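Researcher: Last one for today. Full complex below.
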Amino acid sequence: MLRHISLTVNGTRHDADVEPRQLLVYFIRETLGLTGTNVGCDTSTCGACTVLIDGRSVKSCTMLAVQADGRDITTIEGMARNGDLHPIQRAFHENHGLQCGYCTPGMIMAAASLIEENPQLSEESVRMGLEGNLCRCTGYQNIVKAILAAAEEIRSSARVSSR
Amino acid sequence: MAQVKERYVGQSVKRKEDAELITGQGRYTEDISIPGMLWMSVVRSPFANARIRSVDLSKARVMDGVVAAFSGKDLAGDWAAPMLMAWPVTEDIKNPPHWPLTQDIARYQGDGVAVVVAESRAAAADAAEAVEVDYEPLDPAVDMEAAIADGAPLVHEDIGTNKSYTWTLTNGDPDKVFADAPVVVKERYVIQRQIPNAIEPRAVLVQPSPAQGEFTMWSATQIPHIVRVAMTITTGIPESKLRIIAPKVGGGFGSKLQVYPEEALCLALAKRLGRAVKWVETRSENYLATHHGRDQIQEIEFAADEDGKIRGYRCRILTNMGAYLMIITPGTPLLGAFLYCGPYGGEAYHVEFTGVFTNTTPTDAYRGAGRPEATYAVERTMDALARRVGKDPVEIRRINFIPPFTEPTPSPGGLTLDSGNYAATLDRALELAGYEDLRKEQRARREQGTVKQIGIGFSTYLEMCGLAPSRVLSALRYAAGGWDAATVRLLPTGKVVVIVGTTPHGQSHVTTFAQIVADDLGVPVDDVEVLYGDTQLAPLGMDTYGSRSLAVGGVAVHRAAQKVVAKVRKIAAHELEVAEEDLEYEGGRFAVKGAPDRAKTVGELGFSAWTAHNLPDGLEPGVEETAVYDAQNFVFPYGAHICAVEVDTETGKVDVLKYVAVDDVGTIINPQVVDGQVVGGVVQGIAEALYEQAVYDENGQLLTSSMTNYEIPAAPDVPEIAVGRSETPSTTNELGVKGVGETGTIASPPAVVNAVIDALSPLGVTDIGRPMSPERVWRTIRDAKEGGAR
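Model: Here's the assembly. Have a good evening.
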């Protein structure tokens, strides 16, 4: 028996009838075709499927699509605006914060939430904040560097715009 | 075509492959769908060893959305041959057949016994649950040593033994050297099993074209070219009708250097049903059905003088094959067989490997493949020797290093090394680590008797990579060659396309190969596109593993670009009306000697070649050149890693305080990429030393069955790595390049373990098992204290 949901994804409203057992990540990937959000495990451990729900990072494999009814979701596809990369995306590129790229969308979304919660991030707080996101390629070093650089850029642009 | 003056090689050019990956546009296999495709789900044995009495598919077949269901016996007629094992390391190796689905006995937990195919992922998963298999559980052989004892249960009854092969290598006269030596140290190490854990699980999609008898397979694989050959052998579908594509691949670490049953199954089912078939592995399934790595028991001996100068090396190794021999299962440990002497000298060498079948997931290559195991044995034993002769670990290494060389030099293991200055990397590492200060701090804490003690560990490793010279592979009985290929094509509008036979999954081929070609042709790096991962696009290729892509594939790229230069030089000479020898070539521009204004660029000449209006007589239009490079030797990266740990002597917790990696990987194309490879590898190796182990119980049940109980480190669990390097060009190839993909996992585990032992040495600790969990360290400390009290 299908259930009706209505939600916003990357600024676009979607109405859909979903199977009650469908995970949010498969709704995003297979119903909406937004395949940037990846699946790396079946235990909500790896964080590859991280998206923003109402601005906070959530592993989209931990939720059913029906639970996202009425929510505002941002996926990796919604991070660049008008062709301009988000500062976190740019920082991952500049700092070689990715190799195979599979964990990257989840890392970027987790980072967005971390910076939003605490713009004064330290190396330690970035590492702690990323505990739920696994990367097998980079050893995390350049991911941490990228997030600190992005946080700095976001802080300084906030200072400029508040003048 | 734009002209550029700068050189790209040696610069940290930002990666060309990033844009799609940071925006979610990278397409991995799971992201690809075909209208009307079916989903496959595999029914797997829950038992490590069980006879299959019957498989009842009737309930599954009538479920909603189910299209078909088959047992191993149902599909037996679909196979032309069992799954391919390409490395029969000895003439008398035992290689029992490995069918895509087992037909009689399930030989490990996860062995496939049936498949279902349905209209959706969920319907396939539901139907797999409804398949009823009647198993008769049998006693399993799980522990490797127990498996070769008399009366052990047999993994393959019909071969009458659990020993697959014994392979030996002897140089010099080890028996005499060991009999004569005043000092012999003997050690035993257990290299625990690892689960590779590429973050992208495997996935396969096969699209048939029934009328043409053609099939396109997308697979999350490191080896599309090898998969194609292997699929032809197993399914009988002509190679010319098979196209294999490895799109974006989310990490491999050796686990996708494999030809898997699910690839053969998707192909066979797509052929039977005439519809596209897709399979995506779950992570828990990955732990059972994707090959594991390592798993050895080593006995190693050094014979030495009284001052610690090594005369000979001798080791006996049991190496766990798991339940079947997969593509290079038996050969994987042998990739380390020549390295049980590290970068050290000596006159005698003997190694013996015995491959053992057990009722466990098959093993095969995992980042480093055989070389981390060898390095671990050697670097641990170096410290044991240092203790025995009363020397510092630095000193024992210094007196045993092969002296600096820039010409090919023999090693005790029988290799001809390309170039090396081992002491130089150690010196640099000592400097970066602040070695004297670390020792001072260690002494202070020992005197104060603080709870947290410091230890310093070394690993001065040598590895061989760039797999592999085809003649050497032949001598080692590997079934294929080790060459690789590249094509460089000039487009009429001045852009350049490079097509390579290696296939990346994180290694940055697109950027580094573009840097090489951009320099060779004098064009902007952004004008060079690098294409890969498709057997139709790149007909020649041997794929990516063993740190070979640059050292073999990159040399092919360079040679193809040089062929392009040679061809357009003819056109330049013709257009400028001079002899070829009267041209100077630099930065993509041919100029007449003595008249530098009379010149043509590669781009202009590419256009001339395309119009073909005025070419020299007999010269073919267009510019597209292919080079196939087969190295004459391996390349031999080396380096010195130093790890400083803090051990909490009350809880057993180990923290890495400082980690310094100084590697010499020959000429460096892109420093940022090289550092990224080193750091990622070191962290993976630290995890091997501290956290990761695949654990089976006595029934052959995998206890570490998901990411929740197999401890992959997250960001807070690992330290910052300090990277230094030296750059001694390889003499094996004209680029001077070696390989860097595996140095980190090869070098780091013994550095960490040696550091923990060093921290606990005042308690008399000389050995500790891996991974060094707090519990294991705590028990080691307790046992040492109790032993001391007795």
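The two ends of chain A are 54 Å apart (CA to CA). The helical segments of chain A are 24-31, 87-94, 104-117, 123-129, 141-162.
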